[in-house]
């Protein structure tokens, strides 16, 4: 399974998003944090901006919806041009139905779990998703510290995916940096979201390369 580095534009300059996306053209997906000020105590951007970003981005968009009522709102992000749409388990009433609806629109469907949400209720459903996002911070803000307590959940998720012989990606988001990415890779993640570690770097493209090399050196087994 390949390694993917998805910089989060949460730490980018919101007044210059087109050039901020150009700066990460060597990454795999641009991670777009959609926050509604209800599911999380922060407000970022919504559908019209995602629609524009999808048109100008040199790489596909990975939309991470930190919004309530995901069943109702998530499909519109697929129609807006995101290549991958992630909704939160805590915000979806019918996650399997929603994932099937997203896939029917031709996008990758992913489910996200906050640090206190267990993977166990979803273990028999893994094949319904293209990716599982294990949050390694409480969602809402960039620049937080990576939560090592989430590593066992990443391990259990990867073990279940391997045991079922599924091709499901495991994404980590929150506090991912050159200091923490190896631990996440060792635990079984293969998709890495990094906001501040990329956009606070003098050269975002070099930061993407460094993260990729560190993860690739550890991800031989998955
Ligand atoms: O989903 C998020 C916050 O809810 C962000 O994607 C995440 O925190 C990235 O920022 P950083 O790498 O600075 O932690």
Automatic annotation (TrEMBL):
The keyword Transport does not apply. It comes from the Bacteria. InterPro entries: Aldolase_TIM, Ribul_P_3_epim, Ribul_P_3_epim-like, RibuloseP-bd_barrel. A divalent metal cation binds at residues 31, 33, 64, 173. Binds 1 divalent metal cation per subunit. Pathway: Carbohydrate degradation. The keyword Chaperone does not apply. Keywords: Carbohydrate metabolism, Isomerase, Metal-binding. Pfam families: Ribul_P_3_epim. HAMAP family: RPE. Catalyzes the reversible epimerization of D-ribulose 5-phosphate to D-xylulose 5-phosphate. This is Ribulose-phosphate 3-epimerase. The gene is rpe.
């Amino acid at each position: 399974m390949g390694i993917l580095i998805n910089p989060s534009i949460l730490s980018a300059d919101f007044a210059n998003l087109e050039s901020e996306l150009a700066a990460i053209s060597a990454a795999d997906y641009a991670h777009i944090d959609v926050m509604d000020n209800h599911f999380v105590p922060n407000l970022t951007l919504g559908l019209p901006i995602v629609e524009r970003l999808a048109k100008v981005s040199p790489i596909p968009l990975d939309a991470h919806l930190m919004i309530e009522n995901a069943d109702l709102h998530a499909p519109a992000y697929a129609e807006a041009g995101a290549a991958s749409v992630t909704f939160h388990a805590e915000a979806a009433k019918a996650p399997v139905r929603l994932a099937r609806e997203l896939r029917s629109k031709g996008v990758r469907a992913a489910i996200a779990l906050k640090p206190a949400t267990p993977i166990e209720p979803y273990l028999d459903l893994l094949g319904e998703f293209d990716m599982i996002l294990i949050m390694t911070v409480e969602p809402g803000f960039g620049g937080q510290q990576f939560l090592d307590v989430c590593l066992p959940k990443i391990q259990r998720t990867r073990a279940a995916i391997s045991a079922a012989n599924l091709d499901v990606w495991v994404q980590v988001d929150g506090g991912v940096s050159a200091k923490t990415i190896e631990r996440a890779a060792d635990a079984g993640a293969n998709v890495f979201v990094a906001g501040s570690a990329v956009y606070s770097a003098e050269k975002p493209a070099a930061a993407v390369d460094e993260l990729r090399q560190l993860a690739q050196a550890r991800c031989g087994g998955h």
